[in-house]
Backbone:
């Protein structure tokens, strides 16, 4: 099946710094990608829809100036957490729809720890 | 998309069939039922989906009631590697967004 990768898998950063997370579709093109956040023992919460060539669409309550999304190409979307704080520590997961309408492929996730 | 209700947790003995229920009483006619699972600290994995007919693939079977208000995911011979959180999601055709509920934490017991 199709593969979605994320980099880095883990990152620790200091409070106030910015962190960039990459999401790549390795063997297929994705005009749309999705970013989720997951706190410990909680479900995945959709943060935003990343659109190649246009602005991302953010879910209600998600600060677009804090979580910058860039869909630079048909295989790459990036999420930048700006001015990170400890409460931004979470598991960030991306996904991309496959060729078939029912398929959606998830990346392995990136665990962000802000100290 | 319609909301789903699942039991928070279930146990199943290794080798037995695991039956995971999902209630989606407000499902509409063009909405599909999807099942994903998430093994600890990994991204979710697609399992199966269906509209109204029962479906089976190499991973599982999906039984949807005639009124479509509920469904059951069946893992026929559960193994320890099936321990995960299982999410039942209802999604309209053509809608690429997946909205995750709280899921069922399935623990396979040796």
Residues:
């Amino acid at each position: 099946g199709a593969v979605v990768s994320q980099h880095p898998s883990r990152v620790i950063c200091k409070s106030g710094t910015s962190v960039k997370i990459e999401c790549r579709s390795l063997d297929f093109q994705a005009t749309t990608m999705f970013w989720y956040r997951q706190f410990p023992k909680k479900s995945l919460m959709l943060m935003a829809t990343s659109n190649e060539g246009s602005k991302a669409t953010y879910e209600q309550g998600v600060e677009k100036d804090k979580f910058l999304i860039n869909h630079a190409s048909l295989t790459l979307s990036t999420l930048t957490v700006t001015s990170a704080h400890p409460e931004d520590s979470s598991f960030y997961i991306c996904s991309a729809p496959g060729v078939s309408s029912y398929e959606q492929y998830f990346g392995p996730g990136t665990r962000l720890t802000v100290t | 998309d319609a909301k789903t209700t699942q039991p928070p947790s279930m146990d199943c003995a290794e080798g037995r069939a695991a039956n995971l229920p999902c209630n989606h009483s407000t499902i509409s006619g063009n909405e599909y039922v999807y099942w994903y699972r998430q093994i600890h600290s990994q991204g979710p994995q697609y399992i199966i989906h269906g509209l109204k007919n029962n479906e089976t693939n190499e991973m599982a079977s999906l039984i949807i009631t005639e009124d479509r208000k509920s469904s059951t995911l069946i893992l026929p011979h559960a193994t320890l590697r099936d321990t995960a959180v299982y999410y039942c999601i209802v999604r309209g055709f053509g809608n690429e967004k997946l909205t995750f509920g709280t899921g069922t934490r399935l623990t396979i017991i040796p």
In short: Chain A touches chain B at residues 4, 32, 34, 36, 43-46, 49, 91, 93, 95, 97, 101-109, 111 (CB under 8 Å).
